[in-house]
Structure formats: structure tokens, C-alpha cells
């Protein structure tokens, strides 16, 4: 993949950096509060058995994020 892609596109074990958030409202505030700002590194740790949500390592904390919200978090390759 070239350029930007979303958090939903990375697989377990892959890392990427945040380029921007397309979310708005309360979810945007929560994502910013956990440190999802430009150039924050995220690593996909895995998905739940049903495939949603997925777990990510963000600034030393494991955070579960729903697929719908992952689509609105744009990334760029490390």
C-alpha cells in the first residue's frame, strides 16, 4: 500500500504511525486522550475471535478499538 491507509488495514505484528484522525465528537476526544496524535506508533496485537474489536499497543497501553473507528484513523508506513 502506498501513502495513507487506515488502522483497520494493519495485521497482527505490524506497526505504523498515525498520520491523522477523521473521527469527530466523543470518540475523537477519547482517541486524543489515549495519545493517538500525529506520528504516534501503533502496533496491532490481534483481533477478537469475532474479528471486532482489535487490540493495539499505543504508548505502552493495550487498547481495543472497534473496526468502524479504526477506519477513521489514518496511518503512514514507518
List keywords for this structure.
6-stranded antiparallel β-sheet, alpha+beta, 2 helices, 78 residues, SH3 type barrels
Could you explain the architecture of this structure?
It is a single chain. It is built from 2 helices and 6 strands; from the N terminus they run ββαβββαβ. Strand 4 (54-58) and strand 5 (61-65) form a beta hairpin. The protein has 78 residues and is an alpha+beta fold. The longest helix is centred in the middle third of the chain and has 9 residues, at 25-33. It has a 6-stranded antiparallel sheet with strand order 1-6-2-3-4-5. It is globular and about 30 Å long. The relative contact order is 0.33. It has helices at residues 25-33, 67-70, and strands at 5-6, 15-21, 41-47, 54-58, 61-65, 73-76. The protein has one domain (5-76): SH3 type barrels, CATH 2.30.30.90.
Order the strands across the largest sheet as they lie in space.
Answer: 1-6-2-3-4-5
Poorly predicted ranges: none
Proportion of beta-strand residues: 35-45%
How many discrete structural domains?
1
Largest sheet: 6 strands, antiparallel
Helical residue percent band: 10-25%
Order of helices and strands: EEHEEEHE
Count the strands?
6
Structural class: alpha+beta
Q: Any idea what the CATH architecture is? A: Roll
Mean pLDDT: 91
Which fold name is given in CATH as the topology?
SH3 type barrels
Amino acid at each position: 500500500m502506498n501513502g495513507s491507509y487506515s488502522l483497520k488495514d494493519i495485521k497482527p505484528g505490524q506497526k505504523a504511525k498515525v498520520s491523522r484522525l477523521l473521527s469527530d465528537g466523543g470518540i475523537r476526544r477519547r482517541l486524543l486522550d489515549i495519545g493517538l496524535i500525529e506520528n504516534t506508533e501503533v502496533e496491532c496485537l490481534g483481533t477478537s475471535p469475532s474479528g471486532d474489536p482489535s487490540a493495539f499497543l499505543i504508548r505502552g497501553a493495550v487498547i481495543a478499538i472497534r473496526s468502524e473507528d479504526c477506519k477513521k484513523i489514518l496511518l503512514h508506513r514507518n
